[in-house]
Amino acid sequence: MKNLALLLSLLILIACDQQKSSGRLPFLGNTIYEENDTIYHTIQDFQLVDQDSSIVTNETFANQVYVADFFFTSCPTICPKMKAQMLRVYEKFEDNDQVAILSHTIDPTYDTVALLKDYADRLGVRSDKWKFVTGDQDYIYDLAEQSYISLADEDGDAPGGFVHSGAFLLVDKDRRIRGFYDGTVPEQVDVLLYDIDKLLNEYQAESDK
Amino acid sequence: MKKLTYILLISALAVACGGSTSEKPEKEASSLSSRDEIRLKQYQVQGAKIYATYCANCHQQDGKGLASLYPPLAGSDYLLEDMARAACIVKNGQSKEIVVNGVTYNQMMPGNPITNLEVAEVLTFIGNAWGNEAGLIGVKDVDKWIDACGEGY
Questions:
Q1: Which region holds residue B72: left if phi is over 0, alpha if psi is between -120 and 50, else beta?
Q2: Domain boundaries in chain A?
């Protein structure tokens, strides 16, 4: 029930945000307020391998905002839909160095580096912009649950069910989650595209100060 | 959508019966072709729903597929040159590498838990959408084709 309320308020936040033309994106996840400090939920340290066999860590996205998702290449249900939608993000920000995409496989046994490479090539995307990463299965699930998806749903009745929910997560340059979208719904991805611009503007405004 | 199907069904019956009544003898000549046309439409309407459920995720709503990952169905030489093979693939899936309009695809396609009639309907929809002109794919043909599906389909 608590989760439902959280999800609802997230949706309302996102919905309201859409209407505001200015203002900052929300900070999602567990926020701790201390006397003189506010500690936001951040993505934990991670180390994964991409389609070029290169190591990918938080540092890879040091000066970038990125969109994260979880999928597997042999999935015939929602993943192709997600990839068709993620291609929109790729195409819009292809020439913007401040934006990257990070797709984690949740089936690393099948999705080897070679297979991810083939998948990315077939999708026609560059590895410096859109990283397809693999690693130990438990490690990826923990990362997904604790860093990315935990804010959306902590139930997880079906193992893998919520990790494999079609979510796109917008992460800012300081590892904080600033947006949560259903990657299978084109209208939600419209909002994501808009929010990425808005997030970049936040950083632009800060550097202009 | 259901309503439309009922209307189509009723009008199909009306036309079918029309030929035998003395009041409309002039319909006799055209009844066969219009009956086929109505069946084609029925198949397409049902097929569109099946397509949205089982096929559109990968092949996309516009039938264009997705990059070099999932092949197109719109204007697909591989599809249109062999409907019997297409029926087997829709029903049983396939994991072979194939070449569609000059591009090689290697993603596995799963089989679909649908009846032969539904295979006929979805093939009729696909075969007549996005510029494809395969005409009606009848369930009797599909029955025969699926009984004869080769190894690997």
A1: beta
A2: 2-208
How far apart are the two ends of chain A, measured CA to CA in Å? Answer: 43
Gap from A98 CA to chain B (nearest CA, Å)? 25
Contact B57 A81 (CB under 8 A): yes
pLDDT of residue A145: 86
Among A38-52, A70-84, B122-136, where is mean pLDDT lowest?
A70-84
Question: What pLDDT shows up at residue B23?
Answer: 47
How many whole angstroms separate alpha carbon B122 and alpha carbon B44? 7
Averaged confidence pLDDT in chain A: 86
* Angle made by CA atoms B62, A170, A59, in degrees to the nearest 5: 120
Cβ <8 Å between A122 and B67: yes
- Pairwise CB contact (< 8 Å): A78 & B57: yes
Q: With cut-offs at 50, 70 and 90, classify the pLDDT of residue A31.
A: confident
A166, HSE (Cβ side, Cα atoms, 13 Å): 18
Taking 80 as the threshold, does the pLDDT of residue B90 lie above it?
yes
The average pLDDT across A97-110 equals 95
User: How far apart are the C-alpha atoms of B11 and A157, rounded to whole Å?
Assistant: 49
Residues 69-98 of B with CB under 8 A from A: 69-70
> Does residue B150 surpass a pLDDT of 50?
yes
Pick the CATH number of A2-208 from 3.90.1170.40, 3.40.50.150, 3.40.30.10, 3.40.50.2000: 3.40.30.10
Residue A183 · residue A166 · CB < 8 Å:
yes
Q: Can you tell me whether residue A78 is helix, strand or coil?
A: coil
Average pLDDT over residues A30-50: 91
Residue of chain B minimizing CA distance to A122? B68
Domains annotated on chain B, with CATH: 37-147 (1.10.760.10)
Which residues on A lie below 8 Å from B69 (Cβ)? 80, 83, 119, 122-123
CA distance B106 to A115: 11
